[in-house]
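ok new one. same drill as before - structure tokens go in, u give me an amino acid for every spot. 212 of them this time. try not to just spam alanines like last time pls lmao
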């Protein structure tokens, strides 16, 4: 059931949350019981230009974890809930060939980090350090793992992707910006997305927060 426990991001930030832009502080709060946080916007770019990775990413795309190909000006919708203290998100990319949904669950750890598990069933997991800079929320990965069958494999640091996420708010446009990049040692940038959106919290149609 949805709850009112502090969101994993704010638990990880602790007193650092005071430095967040007020709109971001609202965004990263737990969604109230029976509510849905709804964001609507456009990704200016999403995916990777490295065509040799597209076949690999198609397998991850089928599991709701990573978008294959390279896309520009993609409308999207995000729906957020808070469930048992975790942030549960469903991001729908409205592609020309049809909608694709990315699913993730973010939970807090006792050491001031958050863990994001991607896909359904969950296939990729990453641990992040969380901090605030100039009002924006910044995440940088400290470990990345993948699930193969029943095995969970932590990628060695020498080849592990470095994932960076920045969430900021533009007072001029009154829109939130999300920027994600994934870089691999020796290879460079292998995945990214960058977009802006407007966000609001509504009561779900059935009052449970489940209609996402």
């Amino acid at each position: 059931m949805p709850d009112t426990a502090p969101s994993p991001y704010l638990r990880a930030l602790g007193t650092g949350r005071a430095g967040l832009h007020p709109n971001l502080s609202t965004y990263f709060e737990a969604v109230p019981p029976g509510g849905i946080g709804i964001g609507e916007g456009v990704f200016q770019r999403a995916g990777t230009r490295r065509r040799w990775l597209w076949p690999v990413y198609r397998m991850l795309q089928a599991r709701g974890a990573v978008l294959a190909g390279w896309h520009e000006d993609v409308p999207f919708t995000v729906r957020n809930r808070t469930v048992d203290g975790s942030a549960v998100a469903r991001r729908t990319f409205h592609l020309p060939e049809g909608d694709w949904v990315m699913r993730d669950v973010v939970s807090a750890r006792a050491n001031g980090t958050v863990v994001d598990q991607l896909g359904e069933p969950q296939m990729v997991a990453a641990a992040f350090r969380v901090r605030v800079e100039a009002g924006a929320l910044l995440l940088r990965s400290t470990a990345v793992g993948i699930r193969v069958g029943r095995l969970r494999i932590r990628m060695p640091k020498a080849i592990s992707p470095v994932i960076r996420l920045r969430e900021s708010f533009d007072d001029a446009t009154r829109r939130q910006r999300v920027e994600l990049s994934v870089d691999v040692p020796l290879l460079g940038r292998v995945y990214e997305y960058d977009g802006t959106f407007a966000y609001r919290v509504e009561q779900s149609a059935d009052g449970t927060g489940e209609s996402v």
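The domain at 8-203 is CATH 2.40.128.20 (Lipocalin). and btw The CA atoms of residues 14 and 112 lie 8 Å apart.
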